[in-house]
Amino acid sequence: MESTLSNALLLLVVGMSTVFVILFLVVTGGNLLIKLINKVEVASPEVPFARIQQDTIEPTKVAIIAATVEAITHGKGRVDKIEKL
């Protein structure tokens, strides 16, 4: 009876420590990978907003949206970006 209980406790300790070590390695590796990737700076080409705006939404719709925002906010609001859903 005593050997069965000691075997069970040994399996419990070995299993839990193995899980702890593996999870520790996963979390540490993930954090190191995140820090490494954040240090790498990728150069992305600048695309002017006006070109994106004209390619995705018709200019008449842009003018209507801008006029609506200006009318509702009494000239205090401004349309910075329009995204098509």
- Give the strand tally: 0
The low-confidence runs, each spanning 5 or more residues with pLDDT under 50, are none
Beta-strand fraction estimate: under 5%
User: How far apart, in Å, are the first and last alpha carbons?
Assistant: 67 Å
Q: What does the largest sheet look like?
A: none
Q: What is the helical fraction, as a range of percent? A: over 70%
Average pLDDT figure = 85
Q: Count up the domains.
A: 2
> Helix/strand-derived class?
mainly alpha
Helices, by number, come to: 3
Can you describe what's shown?
With 85 residues, this protein is mainly alpha-helical. It has two domains: 1-44; 45-85, no CATH class. The chain contains three helices and no strands. The longest helix is centred in the N-terminal third of the chain and has 38 residues, at 2-39.
Quick synopsis:
The chain is mostly helical and 85 residues long. It is 72% helix and 0% strand.
Question: What labels would you give this structure?
Answer:
single chain, mainly alpha, 2 domains, 72% helix, 0% strand
Strand-helix topology:
Elements: H1 2-39, H2 49-56, H3 59-73
